[in-house]
């Protein structure tokens, strides 16, 4: 991930509803959620949710999957890994063992 993509991702996450959506989709895992279910869970109107989902999708942090007439949204784990890798690119001044506690904290045990 380059600096411009990272800035786009940070911009997308800098709004409360979008941050809540992203965290909800991370929690939902590979099953994802429909836009309606996301909106109902977070108490957000459909048109507002659509705009927020579009911003998150453009940022590379979520992806969508069509299922018949509906669309399921999922956290894009590659996008999230790219953002985290960008942040930690120059971590620990060439001493990777210093970064290991952070990496262990981020590792998914699911």
UniProtKB/TrEMBL annotation:
Keywords: DNA-binding, Transcription, Transcription regulation. SUPFAM superfamilies: Winged helix' DNA-binding domain. Residues 1-95 form the HTH arsR-type domain. GO terms for molecular function: DNA binding; DNA-binding transcription factor activity. It holds the Pfam family HTH_20. Gene3D superfamilies: Winged helix-like DNA-binding domain superfamily/Winged helix DNA-binding domain. InterPro entries: ArsR-like_HTH (IPR011991), HTH_ArsR_DNA-bd_dom (IPR001845), Metal_resp_trans_reg (IPR051011), WH-like_DNA-bd_sf (IPR036388), WH_DNA-bd_sf (IPR036390). PANTHER family: ARSENICAL RESISTANCE OPERON REPRESSOR ARSR-RELATED (PTHR43132:SF2). NCBIfam families: HTH_metalloreg. This is DNA-binding transcriptional repressor ArsR. It comes from Pacificibacter marinus. The lineage of its organism: Bacteria, Pseudomonadati, Pseudomonadota, Alphaproteobacteria, Rhodobacterales.
């Amino acid at each position: 991930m380059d600096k411009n993509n990272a800035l786009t991702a940070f911009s997308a996450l800098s709004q409360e509803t979008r941050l809540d959506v992203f965290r909800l989709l991370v929690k939902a895992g590979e099953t994802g959620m429909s836009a309606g279910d996301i909106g109902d869970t977070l108490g957000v109107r459909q048109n507002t949710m659509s705009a927020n989902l579009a911003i998150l999708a453009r940022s590379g942090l979520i992806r969508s999957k069509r299922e018949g007439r509906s669309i399921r949204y999922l956290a894009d784990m590659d996008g999230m890994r790219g953002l985290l890798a960008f942040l930690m690119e120059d971590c620990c001044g060439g001493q990777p063992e210093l970064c290991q506690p952070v990496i262990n904290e981020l590792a998914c045990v699911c």
